[in-house]
Amino acid sequence: MAAGILFAILLSKFSWGPQFIKDWIKPFGTIFINALKLIAVPLILASLIKGVSDLKDISKLSKMGARTIFTFVATTVVAVSIGLGLVNIIQPGNTISKETRNDLLTSYSSDASSRIAMAQQQQETGPLKALEDIVPSNIFAAASDNTNMLQVIFFAIFFGLGLILIPAASAKPVKDFFDGFNDVILKLIDLIMIAAPYGVFALLAALVVESPSRDLFSALAMYAVTVILGLICMMGVYATMVYVSTGKSPAFFFKGIAPAQLLGFSTSSSAATLPVTMERVEEHLGVHKEVSSFVLPIGATINMDGTSLYQAVAAVFIAQAFGMDLSLGAQLGIIATATLASIGSAAVPGAGMVMLVIVLAQAGIPEAGLALIFAVDRPLDMCRTTVNITGDAAVSMMVAKSVNKLGDQKFDNNHTPSEEPGEPEQEKILQN
Questions:
Q1: Which residues have a Cβ under 8 Å from the Cβ of 345 and sit 6 or more positions away?
Q2: Is residue 138 over pLDDT 70?
Q3: Which pLDDT score, from 0 to 100, does residue 119 have?
């Protein structure tokens, strides 16, 4: 980020510098964004089909499974709503001057014109057209266009349910294929994210030379503050939920999960942090292993509250930057799309940016706006991963309490858990 800004400022001192950056530096940023778009549809199919098919354990743990899914979805809706509320109150995109906004609109005029035409066409359709469009008539046609992501999500969920309902022997080869397919997609994302520093360098350099003023950077700062403020609010929501449902204090909860939060912050990966999260939840928060081993892996797949909050803020911020006025219906659509998209977000660094493509396309916001926010995405990714992990831990405690699988763990002065009488499982843990 810093190198891209300094490089562009330095070359801007020369008459040939801005054109050099546009011709020889900016294309690498465009290639990087295109690579993210390229992986979006395969990621949806792999993550969602695998995630839904893994829920077959609900047949044995139907009560726990239903409460887990309901709570995850509910917290995601809360997170998106908080994000939308804050971004509409703070309005970070509106700090961009009219001149800068006009330049942005001019740069992407063709894209904006096509979106306007689509909006006019949609106004002429019936009230249930949006629901009708969710079900594709041809999955291959739907997968060939990133604007049809909801159709791809519907197919993935439908396909995953089919895998659950057929005999396990018949489902196993198909499930094994998608498990392997999911591993390949995650590795491709790893490879793409290796190029992230170069993509950020190119995007920042192009942003500096193409922006006629510095207000775009102040707007990015306000955007980052809005996201972080929303994430802090979600931390408060988790602490309140845990206290109300389990009686455990916020200090107890955050002290128990803190090491997993720090690891998640440094790795930006819920999946990489999962072993530590399970250890903290079981041994320091008192959640029975039967619950943690079920709730936490599912949470790492479908519970991305921090990611969905960020997607809502980012979508409205980009719309504000382009001078677009999103209607209430469009913002309600963002809530639905961000909630569904978070289910398919892989638990790896940078996956949230991939899923943001879905939200932007569905809301009719120019996807080129990704270039505006990618510069500050990495530190925000670290913050939202911390929130994702915290949400997984909070829901595991709530579910454990609801099925009488939450022990009375508490911390002594050395920050080690001590057990209450009548808890042989906890005594066994301590002895080990």
A1: 47, 304, 307, 351, 352, 354, 355
A2: yes
A3: 47
Residue 97: what are its φ and ψ, rounded to 5°?
-65, 160
What are 304's two structure tokens? 């991305």
Closest by Cα among 350, 385, 45, 46 to 183? 46
- Name the token pair of 365: 């916001």
SS3 225: helix
**pTM for the structure as a whole:** 0.63
pLDDT exceeds cutoff 70 at 422 = no
Whole-number Å distance between alpha carbons of 369 and 315: 9
Give CA–CA dist 405/397, Å, rounded: 9
Q: Mean pLDDT across the chain, nearest whole number?
A: 77
CA nearest 289: which of 416, 407, 385, 386? 407
Listed as own residue / partner, the contacts of 353-356 with beta carbons closer than 8 Å and 24 or more positions apart are 353/36, 353/377, 353/381, 354/36, 354/39, 354/40, 354/43, 354/189, 355/40, 355/43, 355/307, 355/311, 356/310, 356/311, 356/314, 356/315
Helix (H) or strand (E) holding 406: none
Residue type, 212: P
Q: Show Cβ contacts of residue 166 under 8 Å, excluding neighbours closer than 6 positions.
A: none
Number of other CB atoms surrounding residue 96 within 10 Å: 25
The H-or-E segment that residue 327 falls in is none
Dist CA 418 CA 410 (whole Å) = 6
Sign of CA dihedral 416, 417, 421, 426: negative
Domains plus CATH for the chain?
14-431 (1.10.3860)
* Contact yes or no for 71/63 (Cβ under 8 A): no
Other CB atoms within 10 A of residue 59 CB: 9
Q: What is the pLDDT of residue 201?
A: 87
